[in-house]
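Collaborator request, handled under Task 6.
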Amino acid sequence: MSDEPSPPPIAVTLPPEAELGVFADFAAIWHTPNTFVLDFLSLTGPAPQVQVGPDGEVVGALPVRVGARVRIPADQVFQIIAALQAQADQWLSETGRSEPPEAWMPSV
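Structure tokens returned to the collaborator:
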């Protein structure tokens, strides 16, 4: 038995305007030395036509807007990854799927 105290229970409350959450088509994830940042993005228009410019550079980008930005202390990111994996495994089991769905994003 460990001598470490267990963490206190957390009572989560949301203001009414946040109960519905924010829809996101996908997330962009980046980090600083101390923080991981999750930008939850939503498409704001149709996917662009990807073209190759005269110099060979690929031109075109998805028009998106950040619906929510979440900053997480770097020390917590591995617990969040484990929790996401546990929920993903449970979702696969509940839906009867054996693998995650195909990626939806167009090739850009």
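The cover message to the collaborator said: "Residues 41 and 67 are 6 Å apart (CA to CA). The first strand starts at residue 26 and ends at 31. Please let us know whether this matches your experimental observations."
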